[in-house]
Amino acid sequence: xxxxxxxxxxxxxxxxxxxxxxxxxxxxxxxxxxxxxxxxxxxxxxxxxxxxxxxxxxxxxxxxxxxxxxxxxxxxxxxxxxxxxxxxxxxxxxxxxxxxxxxxxxxxxxxxxxxxxxxxxxxxxxxxxxxxxxxxxxxxxxxxxxxxxxxxxxxxxxxxxxxxxxxxxxxxxxxxxxxxxxxxxxxxxxxxxxxxxxxxxxxxxxxxxxxxxxxxxxxx
Length: 220
Prior knowledge:
Blueprint: H1 2-15, H2 28-43, E1 70-75, E2 83-86, E3 92-95, E4 99-102, H3 108-119, E5 128-134, E6 139-144, E7 150-153, H4 160-165, E8 179-185, E9 188-194, H5 196-199, E10 216-219
Parallel strand pairs: 6-10
Antiparallel strand pairs: 1-2, 1-5, 3-4, 6-7, 8-9, 8-10
């Protein structure tokens, strides 16, 4: 009887039919499937965990470089010339061969053209790329009842509404009708009201003003 059951079992395996393991009989297919699933589970990398950190990306070609910004200068096929450099308080950067170069007030493309022109005296057909890796000169601040309060890079043309969209959602205690912006003008602090609920409905669009470096948005 036991031999007969074993023959039926292996015959079913060969024919691809479902089987039920009886006493003393090991279901090899079921065990193999379990081992495969366990292996896949171990090999699957864990899903990335969001830290809430926002890394600035300079996609605006009109962004003007400022003091303390960090730049990545890449000269094609010239590794000794390629490096990361901070913009000094005088608005300049230092590079081998050409020494000091004015960076503040220029766009990345304009600075790349300036470096290219200066390098022509030393390198045949230089190809230069300038990337802003860290914005330090143009920042604004968001404080109060938001998901991610702190300092943020200020991009060209950014408004209060756009700034708030990057600071996370409001907390349950936020009063979105009484948001305000603080700005220092002529040595004095000026307060600009911002009613979020009305602005997103198209009312009082004049409250959605363009930000300036150093502005602080407060969400009470």
